Amino acid sequence: MAYDLTKRLVIGLASSALFDLEESDQIFRTKGEQSYRNHQRTYENEPLKKGVAFPFIKRLLSLNSLNNENGPLVEVILLSRNDPDTGLRVMNSIEHYNLNITRAVFLQGKSPLPYIPAFDIELFLSANKVDVRQATVAGYPAGMVMKGNIKDDINDHELRIAFDFDGVIIDDEAEAIYQRNRDLKSFHENENLKRNILHNPGPLNKFIRRLAHIQKIEHLELSQNSKYRPILKTALVTARNAPSHTRAINTLRELGIEINEAFFLGGVEKNKVLEIMRPHIFFDDQMIHLEKVAQILPSVHIPFGVTNP
């Protein structure tokens, strides 16, 4: 029986995003493949430590508890550069943490890029910079998880996802104007002139629209069950400020994207706001914004557009 993934949010996930593989990678780099293989076999029943994307993935999968006529809302597929033998420890760790991830692809060192469209993946996450860059250049929605200090409050059942706007939800048309002139005046003039013209979609546009669909299902659940506690909350954290906010809001409105919170910071450092918000994951296309943020919470670099030549 064919299994249709097009009606759900599909995340392609490298094991390097879900778990902390720093020790394993160090063994591979310094002692070679056979030592790496022996290490994984020796410790295959010892769970790997949680990685950057773990809190995000765990809570995302919890959305499958919602009633939905088309079945589960979320599907997470493991795309691993391991072979099936060394990948057994990853699958055992998934089972240990009770993550409902049942589909896996093991590629023995090969890039997962060709398989992204085969699974209708709307977001591919990996710590492998080359894989993410190649996926982005090929037009696939991909992000590189950043190393950082990850804390996961098991009593926090919300899923808070924060996004930059330009180069993430939308394309880099407006960003290119600023980067070309290094002039906020021309940027604001362009955005004010086009305030009623929708932005073109960016790499995570489909992903956030799928999240908006899930939020509508949560609203329906709440209307039928007053005791239900919504899980998903989204936030916009952008360096834009007035008057460029109008075109951004109009674009989100026309696309049917619900944003719970929006911060038009106009140059205020994003980490100051994000440290208070504590999202379980934050997406931005500029490393300059992510360097401080990644030290305090899970962060993902989207290597898209004019700021990532």
Automatic annotation (TrEMBL):
What would be one Gene Ontology cellular-component term for the protein?
cytoplasm
* One function term, GO molecular function aspect: 5'-nucleotidase activity
The record ties this protein, via SUPFAM superfamilies, to:
HAD-like
Q: Name one GO biological process term.
A: nucleotide metabolic process
InterPro entries, alphabetized: 5-nucleotidase (IPR010394), HAD-like_sf (IPR036412)
Quote the PANTHER family the UniProt record gives. CYTOSOLIC 5'-NUCLEOTIDASE 1 FAMILY MEMBER, CYTOSOLIC 5'-NUCLEOTIDASE 1A
The protein, known as = 5'-nucleotidase
